[in-house]
Structure formats: structure tokens, C-alpha cells
Amino acid sequence: MSFDINLTLESIPRMLGGVGITLQLLVVSGLLGLGLAIILLLMRLSKKPYLDWPAQVYIYVMRGTPILVQIFIIYYGLPQFDWIRSSVFWPILREPMGCAILALSLNTGAYVSEILRGGVLAVDQGLSEAGAALGMSKRHVFIYVKTPIAIRIALPAYSNDVISLQKSTALASTITIADMMGIARNIVAETYAPYEVFVSLAIIYIIFSTGIQKAFGLIEWRLGRYERRNG
Amino acid sequence: MEALSGWWDDYYWGSVVVLKVFVASLFLMVLFGLIGAAAKLSNSPVAQKLAGAYTVVFRGTPEILVILLLYFGSAITLTAIAQVFDPDIKFVDIPPFWAGTFAIAFIVGSYATETFRGAFMGVKPGSIEAARALGMSNFQTFVYIRIPEMWRIALPPFGNHMLSLVKDTALISIIGLNETLFVAKQAITVTGKPFTMYIFVGLIYLAFSTFITMAVMALEAFGKRTTEGAR
Amino acid sequence: MDSAEMPLIEIQQVDKFFGRFQALKQINLEVRKGERIVVCGPSGSGKSTLIRCINRLEAHDSGSIVIDGTELNDKVANIDAVRSEVGMVFQSFNLFPHMTILRNLTIAQRLVRKTPKNEADKVAMHYLERVKIPEQAHKYPIQLSGGQQQRVAIARALCMRPKIMLFDEPTSALDPEMINEVLDVMVDLAREGMTMICVTHEMGFARSVADRVIFMDEGEIVEAAPPAQFFENPENERTRTFLSQILTH
Q1: pTM value?
Q2: How close A131 comes to chain B (CA, Å)?
Q3: Would you call A134 and C112 a contact, using CB atoms and an 8 Å cutoff?
Q4: What does the DSSP assignment read for C30-86?
Q5: Which residue from A36, A80, A127, A166 has the fewest beta carbons nearer than 10 Å?
Q6: CB B198 within 8 A of CB A72
Q7: Which of B60, B63, B195 lies closest to A80 in CB terms?
Q8: What is residue A10's DSSP assignment?
Q9: Are there at least 3 beta-carbon pairs closer than 8 Å between B and C?
Q10: pLDDT for C134-169, tens place per residue?
Q11: In DSSP terms, which residues pair with C88 in a beta bridge?
């Protein structure tokens, strides 16, 4: 059994050609998911049952089913209906990228909303009471006291979710998208050399994850200034 | 819904496969997690570095990539090894069941390493000191003091690991494991109803997730019976 | 009847329940302007609950609480009106950890009173000087000692110019050597005529500053008297028991 270094060196640039798509999937889904997460969070915090319950059900379903199934439902499943195919959303839902981004956003939104909620609940209640005693309205307390502290608490868990999202982008290759994973599978199909190609792809992904982790570490360090005695 | 009739049997057996994968990978995941945690907690720098590499590699690599790498890569390795003994052998491979089970056990095991390590370190040092002061041996301290506290701390994140195992099983369909998603693909070519089939798969997985979540909640309540609210 | 004679705080027949547990039983209390009240009692006696009802951090279940003419009920306008006149200092300081000391003192002024930045800063520095730590203005709470943090907390409450100050065990979370610096600030405040209700175990403070000492036990006001009488000649058996428990050491 030999390890074909040449093949490795040739495949890496080809796979990196898919970086653009991978990043697109990551960033767009990440941002849309964050927006959805905030909406879900506010629904859950609103204390109104008609907002809280639907949000809870949505989060429960999205977190309880495999993301691959969710991708397939959107890409393969929705075209089953005529009214989808004639709707205004069809141009997006017809495209693999549109479906992948939609699925990833809907999924990460559910996870992130729970992470944010954990952060908000972890804020010391005494701080809210101090704000109330000073006459601050609930809205003011939420914006100026709870949110800044909740963000710092939730940041480590959020960074884990971003890394998860990055790994999930590889699933886009199952619906014909030519991201890094998709290109890799094509190369393997051509060359029958899974080791060389997949191992180098794994290394690329690991470098990505480490990069994301370091970036968040930096953000956490900067935001956590008030927690260090030396400021 | 009539599309589903005639497929109940197949879906049933597909679910059985999901269950089998869950049991096998659960056992392995715990094994890998404990070994990894022990390595990280040990005094040996080699063990720590290896465990560190293990977590970085499997937490940074997409699950589907690990599955493909293990499946195709191991086939090549095993074939090469077998051909040393018997040059006539054309092809040796691992059944998708085992390739997939080991793959997801490795991946979730790398997260479990952190969980177990954190649980070990989360036991209050004061409890350990008290046990020592009372004359309990290392083994007794471990069994009667450490373990009961550890599993209480580890239970919530461990529940999430179990959910990950179940959901990752859907990915193994990519390498031909005949679990429910695989069944769905076949059903679709016959019935032409992708939405119906994929939603049904989603419901099956949701049922599994629900069952695990409820089991974990029951265990958490059991664990708390002595520490909270006992008046 | 002119306003100097009307009590600033009127609490009448107040009950408070937590589930089935009754934390306050038929509390009646009047506090005049400028009075200094110390509330003491064993843990679980309801003393914290009582003062937390005064600024609606807890809601009383029956009876009435009237602060400077405003009835304390569910109406947001009433709650806001009361909170603008009542300041509170907490046992665990509750300074906003992610803001500098200066911002801790100015944020409520700017959001609630809409005071412009310059003026808010001036007021903040004025009170920081009153509590004797103006140089800490740009530090973060974590960089200050417990005693300093609590003094900042007092200054923060004062920046809103309250008529009444509530103290919920202000020195209980402090190391012994820092208790006095906080008590000194509270004594100064009392001397200037601030109406104060203070839940505390510091009996020396009660003796020298309080107009009335109130003993609470199991949700009821058991005894209320000026310090001289309270400490030398308590009427009630339970008061005597409590005093003997805390004063012998």
C-alpha cells in the first residue's frame, strides 16, 4: 500500500477551490441562523404562551432530527408539491445552494437560540434587581445589563456551534454542491485514492476549526477585560 | 399517506438497525471517552498529547468525512493486508455497520473525553479530602465518592452525546447502511414521494430523540432525589 | 395635616406568601421622614422580604403599602414613581461587572432621568467623593475590594437622589476589616437626615444611629422600640432570647 504524495499535492489546490462555497455556506447560514436564533430567543423569553410554545416545538424538532434529513426534506422533498414549484420562492428552493443555506440556517438557528437562552438565564439575578431598584425599565435592564453579560457567558458555547456549522457544510456535498467535500468526493471517484484525498481534506478542515477557535478565543479575551483584575 | 403502505416493514427493520448502531456506538463512545479522559488526566505527557490530538482531529473533522475515510480507507488497508496472506483476494471490506459505528463512536467519543474529564475535575476537592481524612482507600474514594458525583455532573452533556449518536446514524446511510434514511431513498424511487418519506424518517428519528431525552430526564431526577428538595 | 407629619412609608396589614409559606404576617409599620430604622431578627424572619416589598422587588399579597402618598400596586407608573424615591443597597453589592465604576453610577441617571452625560458624570463624581473613592472611577468592579464595591453601590443608589434608602444586610458579605468603612458612610448618611431602613446584624450601628429598632421573627414584627429601651429593657421574651444569642459573643 503506498501513499501517493503527488496526488495529495495535486488534490489540495483543487479542494481549496471549493473554499469559497464552503465559506459562503458557513457565513450566510451563520448570520441567517443568528438572526433566527434571536427571534426564537425573544419568543421564548416573552412569557406569552402563544409565542413560547411554537418556538419550543420548533427548537425541539430541529434539534431532534438529523440535519441530513432536514437537507433532504428541503431539497428533494419540497419539489413534490406543485404549489412550491409555482411559488415565488422557487428560484431559491430549486438551487442546491439555496436549499443548503436554508436548511443549515434553520438548523443552527434552533441550536444557537438555546445557547443564547442559557446565557441570558445565567446572568446573576441580583444584577437585574439592582437595575430595577435604580428605576430602570425591564427593557433597559435587558439591553444594558443582561445582553452584554449573556453574550460573554454564551460565547464559548457559540464558538462550538460555529465549528459544528462548519462541519455541517460538508453535507452540502450530498446535494451536488461543489464545496471542498464535494470536490474531494469527485477526486476520489476519479482516482480511487480515498486516503490521500480524504486525509488531506480532513487536515484542511482541522486547520479551519482551529482558526475559528483561535478567533473566538481572541474575542473572548477582549470582551472579558472586565473579569481580569489587571484590566 | 398511502405511499407509506407496503414500506412499514422496511422502515421497521431500518429502525432496528438504528437501534443496533446506537447500542454498539454507545458502548464504544463511552470506552473512547473514558480512555481519552484518563489519558488527559494522567501524568504522562505522551498520553496527554495523544489524547489532545485525538480530540482536535475528531472534533475538527466533519462526521461524514470520518465515515467515508474509515469505510473506504479501511477497505484499502484491509485488502492490502489480506493480500499479503492470500494474493488472490480481490477485496476485503468492513461492513458499513461497523465502519459507521466506529466512526461515530470516535467522533462523539472525542466530545465525551472533555465531558468525562470535566466531570472528574468537577468533584469537590473537599469531598475527596474528607474521604481521605476518614481513612478511605483510593479505590473506595473512587467508587463511593467520585463516581456518584461524576455521573451527576456528566449526565446532561452525556445526554447530548447520545442524541448526537442517534442523529449521526443517518449519515451512515451514505455508505450503504440500511437504516431508515437508506430505506427512504429506495421507497422514493418506487413511490415518487420524497417529502412524505423524508418526513417519516424525520419522525422516526424524532421518536428516538424523544425517548433518549425522556430517559435522561428520568435519570437526572433520580440523581437529584437526595440533593434537592428533600425536606 | 402638613407633609412633615404624614408618614413617608405606611405599611398596613401586609401579608406575603411564597407558595404556602407565609413570609409576612399582618405587618404594620409607619416610617416618618428622617427616621432611621434598623430591622433585626433570625434568618427566615421575613426582614429581607419586608424591605424588598417596599420597592416592589417582591409584591405583597394583601394589605397596603403607601410610599410618599403613592400606593404600591401592579401599576407600572406607581412602581416607577416609588422606585425613583427609594434607593437600595444589596448584600452582594450587585454592581454591573461589565461597566466601569463611573458608568455604574451614571447609567440609571441617563436612562431613567434622561440626564445628559456631563451632568450625570458630575453627580457621579460628587457621590464618589462622598464615599471617599473618587480615584476608582474608571476601574471595573472586580478591581475593587468588597468594602469599596459596597461604597460604590451606596453612591450608585444616591445618584438617583432617593428620599428613602433601604439597606439589605449591607455588611454581611464583607470581611471584618472592611465593615467599618461602609458603616461610616451609612452613619454620615443618617446624620444628614436620610430616611433609612436597614436590615443588619451590626448592633453597634443600631445602638448609635437608629431611632427605632425592630425585631422580626417568623414573619411578624415582635417588638419595636428606641435603641435604649430595645437593648436594655426588651419587653418580649423572644426578643430577649434573640439578643442573648447575638450579644454574648
Answers
A1: 0.86
A2: 30
A3: yes
A4: EE-TT-EEEEE-STTSSHHHHHHHHTTSS--SEEEEEETTEE-SS-HHHHHHHHHHE
A5: A80
A6: yes
A7: B195
A8: H
A9: no
A10: 999 999 999 999 999 999 999 999 999 999 999 999
A11: C166
